[in-house]
UniProtKB/TrEMBL annotation:
EC numbers: 1.97.1.4
Keywords, sorted A to Z: 4Fe-4S, Cytoplasm, Iron, Iron-sulfur, Lyase, Metal-binding, Oxidoreductase, Pyruvate, S-adenosyl-L-methionine
Name the record gives this protein: Pyruvate formate-lyase-activating enzyme
DNA repair recorded as keyword: no
UniProt source species: Ureibacillus xyleni
Classification of source organism: Bacteria, Bacillati, Bacillota, Bacilli, Bacillales
Cofactor: [4Fe-4S] cluster
Amino acid sequence: MIGRIHSIESFGTVDGPGIRYVIFMQGCLLRCQFCHNPDTWDTKGGKEIEVDELMADIQTYLPYMESSNGGVTVSGGEPLLQMDFLIELFTKCKELDIHTAIDSSAGCFSNTPFFMKKLEKLLQLTDLILLDLKQIDNDKHKKLTGLPNTHILEFARILSDRNVPVWIRHVLVPGKTDNPEDLKRLSAFIQTLKNVQKIEVLPYHKLGVYKWENLGLKYPLDNVEPPSEEVVRRAIDILNATQ
Ligand code: SF4
C-alpha cells in the first residue's frame, strides 16, 4: 500500500508518550490561519512511500521506542485522509507490539457508512488519538479554519462512545482562540467526554510563516504575536477546571 507523506521525524518527543517515530501525512482539508505546515495541505503534494519501506525504517528505532514506552504517531496534514494506508501501517505496527497514535484535527470526518467502516477498523489498531479542538464557537471556527466544527465535535463524541483514549490539544492563538468564555465552553464540552486522558495547550508560534511565503501565500496572522506565559497559564487552568 502506498501513502503520501510530507516528512518523518524519527525522534519525536511531543506527539504522544515516549520517543516517537512521527510520520507527517500529506493533505489537509482545513486551512487554519495559524498553520505552521501549509506545505502539507496539497493532497497531491509530498512524496509517495510504501508501508513496507516505512516499516523497515521504523524497526531501526524500535530500541528507543521500547526503552521510552514510545511508539509511532501519524500526524499531518490530516492522517484520516489516508485511512487505508494507516490501517495497513498500524496492522504491521501491532504485529511488532508498537504503540500507535494519530494526531488529527478530524476536518475530513464524515459520519457515513463508507468513512465509519474504515474508521472502526482503524480505531481497533489505535492506542491513542491526539485530537485538535481549535475553536468551540462554530462561526469563529469557520473563520479560523475554513470549515465548521460540528463534524469535528461529532467525531470527538464518537471516540468517547467507543472509549478510545484521547489527548485534547488546543492551539492558543491570541485574539482567535484565547477568549476565556470560549475556553469555558470548550472545557464544558470536553467534560462531556469520558475518554480524555490529558488536555494540552499549545502556544501559537510563528515558526512556519516562511512556508507561507515560500508558497506565495499571504500569512493572515502577521500582526499576532505568541501568547504570554500568563495567558497560557490561564487557558490551562480554564480548560482543566471542573465546571
Ligand atoms: S489541521 Fe493542521 S495541517 Fe491542517 S490546516 Fe490546520 S494546522 Fe494546518
